[in-house]
Amino acid sequence: MKTLHILGSSDAFNAGGALHSCYLLSGEKERLLLECGPSVLAALNRDKIPSTSIDFLLISHLHGDHFGGLPFLFLEYSYRVKRSTPLRLAGPPGLQERAEKLYAVMYGKTLSDLRFELEFIEVHPDVDLHLGDFTIHPFEVPHNAQPFALGYRLIEGTHTMVFSGDSAWSDILLAQSQGVDLFLCECCTQEPRLKQHISLHEILQDRAKIGAKDLLLTHLGDDMRRMKKTSWAHAHDGLIYTFGAKTTN
Ligand SMILES: [Zn+2]
User: Residue 229 Cα, ligand 1 centroid: separation in angstroms?
Assistant: First the structure.
């Protein structure tokens, strides 16, 4: 992986006016969009990223702020730009059904109306998958999503990263973070307040056990955004993290 482009760094509530979860990973040859929040097109257009440059989509769990942008992306590829290559869309079981329902409710259309080729791939915990040159290890994280919520460890080229998805703080995140270049970790609040999400307090308590070179906090809620500068790297919309560059913390 060469870069991670933060397209949307907010929690479900667009705290601070930031956009919903959306991250673009650029590999040597291919691009993977990690999460597809409802504001996906606003983010791509803001940062002048052609939507057709995305090869793969990977979704962590079936909450609207993480996959609710799919109907807009479907419209984009069907009516605004011409997508000539298939889109491979990977996520937990049920993603296809939810995407179909969402598209029907929002636009009265079915997936057979799409003017591009779409392939759904079901992802299961601990069953590795390959999307082009990206090797992805999914693992289950504690979060109230059906059928389950996933975190991902991703490898492409010589670099690795771990993404928490939405999760409560858990030893599995510490284990998965060992030896990676970057840990992109959700952090909604400063103090533990939400049972299904991570707080800065919990991360700081275990900071010595995190085995990633860099730690980047995202999915930031209101009180995280009100913080004065800290020694922890906070994502913000438009930030581009370069793998192999100097560490961020
Ligand atoms: Zn969630």
Answer: 26
For ligand 1, the distance from its centroid to the CA atom of residue 246, given in whole angstroms, is 31
pLDDT greater than 70 at residue 198: yes
Q: How far is the CA of 159 from the centre of ligand 1 (A)?
A: 26
pLDDT per residue as tens digits for the range 131-146: 999 999 999 999 999 9
CATH number for position 214: 3.60.15.10
Q: DSSP per residue over 116-158, as a string?
A: S-EEEEE--TT--EEETTEEEEEEEE--S-SS-EEEEEEEETT
Q: What is the number of domains present in the chain?
A: 1
249 occurs within a structural domain: no
Write the pLDDT tens digit of every residue in 52-70: 999 999 999 999 999 999 9
| Dihedral sign of CA atoms 239, 247, 219, 38 in order | positive
pLDDT in tens, 173-184: 999 999 999 999
Distance from Cα 69 to the centre of ligand 1, integer Å: 14
pLDDT of residue 51: 98
How far, in Å, from the CA of 243 to the mean position of ligand 1? 27
